[in-house]
Design brief:
Elements: H1 5-8, E1 26-33, E2 42-45, E3 48-51, H2 53-68, E4 72-79, E5 83-90, H3 145-162, E6 174-177, H4 181-203
Antiparallel strand pairs: 1-5, 1-6, 2-3, 4-5
Helix pairs in contact: 2-3
Length: 205
């Protein structure tokens, strides 16, 4: 069976930048895919994502990440039918109060060709996120990107197991290090527009 090219876009081995410390201060564009294709997390109708119960839990638990990993900030996220996108910042210092995502001045780029590296200073504001659900994981103040994402995936899976809902994520996830302010803005727009763009594309097929 010929596989959907859009599905394969992120269906690959996790690419990790050799020598890069994934607990260091940066913003990461993360894609997590469900184990199966289709409307696993919900359905896009007229450009709007209509999340089902699993999709709602996946979305709510994203908003909980910064509560349990208080050196993180979620700048943007979206649940799609068979994957989730998260724009996640790892900060050097812990957040002890609600954080409105104040970031962004690019100081330097590394020679890490494909990934790039962003150094952060206070700058523009991005929409705030609020905690609306209880993420069922052990509270941790810090962690590497892999620890954070695996804890998140495990929490969603654990909820499904407890409620007799059949669900699995793919074992790996895709990440890209945000290189500069333009990259951040483009990625944020991509995430926000993803449901509408998906709808337009598939409506024409």
């Amino acid at each position: 069976m010929k596989q959907n090219s859009n599905f394969n876009k992120y269906h690959s081995k996790t690419m990790r930048l050799r020598g890069w410390n994934y607990s260091s201060e940066s913003i990461y564009f993360i894609t997590i895919r469900t184990n199966s294709k289709g409307n696993i997390l919900g359905e896009i109708i007229d450009g709007d994502m209509q999340a089902n119960k699993i999709g709602q839990i996946a979305e709510e638990f994203i908003k909980e990440i910064s509560k349990y990993f208080n050196n993180t900030t979620t700048h943007a996220s979206v649940i799609m039918p068979d994957h989730a996108h998260i724009l996640l910042e790892i900060n050097k210092q812990s957040n002890n109060k609600p954080h409105h995502g104040v970031v962004l001045q690019c100081l330097s780029l590394s020679d890490a060709s494909r990934h790039g590296v962003m150094r952060l200073k206070q700058g523009v504001q991005i929409a705030p996120r609020y905690i609306v659900a209880k993420l069922d994981i052990k509270q941790l103040s810090k962690g590497s990107l892999s620890i954070i994402i695996n804890q998140y995936k495990g929490a969603v899976k654990g909820y499904c197991n407890k409620n007799n809902i059949e669900f699995n994520w793919q074992s790996k996830f895709f990440d890209r290090i945000i290189r500069d302010k333009n990259n951040l803005e483009n990625t944020t727009n991509y995430i926000h527009n993803n449901p509408k763009d998906y709808w337009r594309k598939h409506k024409l097929l």
